[in-house]
Amino acid sequence: xxxxxxxxxxxTFAGPAMLFxxxxxxxxxxxxxxxxxxxxxxxxxxxNYVGFANYIDAFKDTAFWKTLLMTTGFSLLSVIFINVxxxxxxxxLTSGVLGQNFFRAGFFTPNLIGGxxxxxxxxxxxxxxxxxxxxxxxxALFQKSWLSNPSTAFASLVIVQTWQLSGYMLLIFIxxxxxxxxxxxxxxxxDGANERQTMWSIRLPLMVPSFVICLxxxxxxxxxxxxxxxxxxxxxxxxxxxxxxxHIYTQAFENHRYGVGQAEALIFFLVIAxxxxxxxxxxxxxxxxx
Amino acid sequence: MSQTPHAVGGNKSLxxxxxxxxxxxxxxxxxxxxxxxxxxxxxxxxxIVKTPLKLVDDKGLQWINYKNAIDKMNFGxxxxxxxxxxxxxxxxxxxxxxxxxxxxxxxxxxxCKISFSAMLASMIVPFQVVMIPLIAIYGSQLHMLNHxxxxxxxxxxxxxxxxxxxxxxxxxxxxxxxxEEAARIDGAGYHRTFFTIVLPLLKPILSTVAILEILSYWNxxxxxxxxxxxxEFYTLPLAIRTFYGEFSSDYGNIMxxxxxxxxxxxxVYLILQKHVIGGIVAGAVK
Lengths: 290, 286
Known about the structure:
Chain A has 290 residues and is mainly α. Chain A has 13 helices and no strands. The relative contact order of chain A is 0.13. The mean pLDDT of chain A is 91. Chain B contains 13 helices and no strands. Chain B starts with a helix and ends with a helix. Residues 1-8 of chain B have low confidence and may be disordered. Chain B has 286 residues and is an all-alpha fold. Classes of the chains: A mainly alpha (290), B mainly alpha (286). Chains A and B meet through helix 1, helix 2, helix 4, helix 5 and helix 6 of A and helix 1, helix 2, helix 4, helix 5 and helix 6 of B.
């Protein structure tokens, strides 16, 4: 095949996909790195070179680090709840419960709806339904809207995130449980292993691949939460539940500090990449063959 | 003598019943928020605030809430915008990604290897990293905001990596080269071979990708909120956000609006439930 023919094939087959990909992902990625070295405010035509000033500002931005800490805490808690609940539900549903597919489909429902709308639905629950319970169950927890206090607002975010994603991870755990060959379980039973021993020594080790996927998905998704944050708490009260994705948005589009915002976005990216790659690497090493 | 197996069987079915009951209770808790919104969408504001858990308003069903929500949200227009953007994006995405994936599988040219590796690597980049430069380029410099096709263009850019990756795996594992060679010997060009032989065989993977992408495009809020600043282009999530902002104390209308935005997705899900679940599992495990 001549070079001309090759070029023709590349342009006609991969050309459109690569064009969109480069214009929307690669060019902005490179341009974004350039932006971090300028003082652009989003409006002015001039961009002055400012060296590492934006990175220094980002490192000094205590609000940014506070949101990163808050996001990490939110993600860790969510990941634990999501996976524990999803694992037990998957175990329950695969242990011979009638209508497994019906339950599976039901639990998945929250994942069909975007975080924005889910946040609005739960906002009504936490700010309206919860206080309305106070007249019949007079405990301090139900006295006020959960969204008006920093710690209950934080808990609300974790609850909604867990509610949504556990139905998703459930699917992956179910296919993990189903994938364990009946022969292995039978062999364990013949050897006299009880239910608990089978779980710890056979099922869990064989399900490490499912855990790797679920932890990766739930962790990266929780770190990047924006829509839910916006509609459920809007970062309030007093910015206490503002997460990093929202902080980056405000830095750029509300404070017009594009360079600092972009520098913070890159730091955010590094943090997510390091955490998720380490987790996958450690998980992969624990995988075993049946 | 014969009682022992019977007793064991009885014990077992008791445990099964218990498991089903637990599953039902948890499912009810999971679906409670949707039921709550549905029930309250037919009540007056006063009834929602005072007794949100009551099934029916004393004043009867408030269908007027739906009429108000449809009018104030401009539901028809937003629904149409969403349908257009998602429809065009997904169709183009499937065609372009499967074409690229086919070339990447069938050739070992350096350009293809670099292109594919770049796509794979880009999949871990969070949206926040390209969000600011994207608006800087296409908003401030090229003035391309507030066009539906700009939205389609960006959806394609963000979607091709995953879609190409999934098609790549499928073509590599399931499409025999022999089929294509037979068509080539019969005189069909590369393009004709692809569209008549390969593309029809890709149906399983394309429907999986379509389901994943339809859900993510349909629910997307952040990117459309930056592209569409004029109300006439609003997609459903944008319409519900402005509606919520303007009428946040008008609970009846809000609930009706939320029900209306959730209903189409749930309706499609009820019909295609098995495919959706299958697609999500296939997509996640890849």
